[in-house]
Each structure stands twice: as structure tokens, then as C-alpha cells.
Amino acid sequence: MENDRSKVIVKSGYLFILTNFLLAAFNLVVGLIAGSLAITSDAAHSLIDAISGFVVVVGEKIAKKKGDKRDKIERITTVAIAIVIIAAGVHIVVEAIEKLTEAEEAPEYSLATVIVLVGSIIAKLALALYLKHRGNKYKSKVLSASGAETMNDMVISVAVLTSVGFYFLWGIDIEAYISLIISLIIFKIGLEFIFPKLSKHHHHPLETDPSHGTA
Ligand SMILES: [Zn+2]
Predict the structure, then answer these.
(1) Any idea what the CATH number is for the domain that residue 78 is in?
(2) Residue 67, class by beta-carbon neighbours within 10 Å (0-12 exposed, 13-18 middle, 19+ buried)?
């Protein structure tokens, strides 16, 4: 049974990585075509979620092989990744400020933009519910926490869709502000990589589950 449980947790982790990677790809394409900073920022966020999930998987594999060198390797990779993540956050802030201060070209949303955004919201909602359900069934705090985090990500996509709606209906462009909110989330993820103690609630499905010790 314990073996089944860890298999489900690992599979859910791969699903988390794959879903976020696909979300990043689709959103990056429509975001670039539309010239929308909010959508490309959300794509960067999904990519960062996918990468951080992937790092946990690779980290676990290295940990099994290298044993005592684990801590040092983990420390170096997490700090390197944190730097990349924080740099991405800074980039988004700079772009958002440029957008707010300079007369930049307005985004050009299309039906494809709306379809991808609605699809992203549905995919994130489905993933969040799936992770929460699995978390309850297997009494895994990390799966439940990943479900909760994915639910927050879904709210961000709703905010992005709202900014598109504002623009369609009233011609008001609020996407720079949405991008700033996303950059704050990206900074938070980056800082949590460097200071894991900050993130009591930020877990990943593949992390060792404190609610179920290996002993
Ligand atoms: Zn996220």
C-alpha cells in the first residue's frame, strides 16, 4: 500500500510538471502574438512552476545516488534556480513599468487568446481538484498543498482573463498591474527557493511528505 501511495504521489508530480509546461507553451505563444505582458508573465509563472517541480524530481534522483553530497548539490542548484527566477521577476517589473510610463503599442487580443486563457483556467482548476482529491485520499499534505497552490494559479489566470475583458469592453488596459502582481508571486517563489523556511505551505508533490515519515 505504501508503495502504491508513493507511486501516486510521483505520478501526480509528473502531471503537475507536464500541465504547467504545456500551459507555459500555449500562453507564451498567444501572449507573444497578442503582445500581452500579462499573458507572457503568466506563461513565465507556469514555466517556473514546471521547472521547480522538475528540480525536485531531479534533486530526489541525485539525492538517491550521491547520498552525503546531497545537501551541497541541492544548495547550489536551488540558489542558481532562485537567481534565474528572481531575474525573471525583475524583467517583468521593468517591462510593466515601461508599459505604464511609455506609450507602448496596445495588445491585440483575438479569439485564440480568449480560448487559450479559458482553457488554462479549466486545466488549472481540473489539476487543482485532482491534486486535492488525491491529497485527501492518500492523506498527503504535500499533494493537498500543491492543489491549493494550483488553485491560486487558477485565480491568477482569471485575473489575466479579466484584464482582457476590461480591454474588450471598456478599452482600459490594466495588464501592466496584473503583470506586477504576477511578478510578486514569482519573487515569492524565488525567495522560497533560497529560504525554504519562508514556505510553510509551499510544497511540491514530490517532496518527502512530513505527514507520512519514511520510518
Ligand atoms: Zn504557481
Answers:
(1) 1.20.1510
(2) exposed
